[in-house]
Write the structure tokens for this entry.
Amino acid sequence: MAKSTTTFVCQACGATTSKWSGRCDSCGEWNSIVEEKPLSAGPASKSLGAARGRTAPLTDLSTEETPPPRTLSGLDEFDRVLGGGLVPASAVLVGGDPGIGKSTLLLQAAAQFARSGLKTLYVSGEEASAQVRMRAQRLGLSDAPVKLAAETNLRDILTTLEEERPGLAIIDSIQTMWADNVDSAPGSVSQVRAAAHELVTFAKRRGMAVILVGHVTKEGQIAGPRVVEHMVDTVLYFEGERGHQFRILRAVKNRFGPADEIGVFEMTGGGLSQVANPSALFLSDREEPAPGAAVFAGIEGTRPVLVEFQCLVAPSSLSQPRRSVLGWDGGRLAMILAVLEARCGIPFAGLDVYLNVAGGLRVSEPAADLAVATALLSAREDVAIARDMVVFGEISLSGALRPVGQTENRLKEAQKLGFTTAIAPARSKAGDKPGLALKSYPDLAGYVGDMFGA
Ligand code: TYD
Ligand code: MG
């Protein structure tokens, strides 16, 4: 009897099984398993491939040969997140929620790349060419020498790419692409995987850079398989809060540059405009000093960014008080609350805690610990802290304050924005900054006693 050729694929994580079940064993997602035909329908050939001479000794790849230069789009925020421009023959994935502005960003980037001399092809699977053209007109980009194609069939796209030989192809979006040799619906894991694989391999072979756009599911993953993330060199996420005009382009993986780099944009009527000084933007709508607010001198990627932590502490009517966090790690908050209780004798039992990073930024640095503790105490004690003070430092479980990296850059940014006091862990190395006083503390208890008299 011929072997069954169908497999069951989890649409959330891409795991395959031989039988259907209600819950994926790999990722635990419910109702995500769908029957799909396997990628290679035919039997695997037993004979060896014809490839020959495709290897070369490492030492042969001559060291004098300089790597091909990166192309700068001139859209500085975008270039920086890429690690200093677009690397030739690289594959980039730009993920984000529907409607966040991916198409807008990439159309603007395409226009800039085309203007700086890189032959650029924008393939839209979601909009007709006329619609893309209309959008370009509205963005004031209609004179940019970008080639457009409205196409979803992968075979046709590859033919077009073969003929056009662009230096950069933008595929918007990978979920609309469809390979006719794969027997499942567009947007399914098999299709997304096959299309991404074909496009990336093609791009590498032809020395063409490719940017894939991917929609993100509610859970925050690129819809379909994580495997697309492994296939590309660089993964960027375009994120932002609904209702906020700020958009943040974040590198989460980059073979050619630092991960965690961010680019900040503002969505306006005329498209995305770059925000060269994010600190000023994130702090711009600060009101009078209020209890619960503390400014953190952070580093995002290679750039210092000052952001405000806002905290509210209120008596709880729940047996298990609420801990609500936006823009910061919930586990980390629990840890800081525990350290405050155990090392400084300040309990938060019976109190609801709400913590928020102003402006919709997401902070992941442990260096923000001390700023979070400051916001928590300021809210709990109902005392506003000085408006011109920045805070940074990592808190260890023992209650000691640990110095963090890039102290100098953090202080410079604070000084530039007119702050006059900086709180940092002891042993932080920094030169003198006129107008900015550096106060350092070896442990949390000492700081809390000094600051809040607790
Ligand atoms: P879009 O780039 O289509 O999002 P995506 O490709 O990620 O789905 O952006 C759509 C949103 O951006 C839409 O809500 C309108 C807004 N927008 C502006 O505010 N100004 C503009 O100039 C453009 C082109 C879009
Ligand atoms: Mg779009």
The chain has a mean pLDDT of 87. The CA atoms of residues 108 and 141 lie 7 Å apart. Residues 96, 98-104, 135, 138-139, 267, 269-271 surround thymidine-5'-diphosphate (ligand 1) (CB under 6 Å).
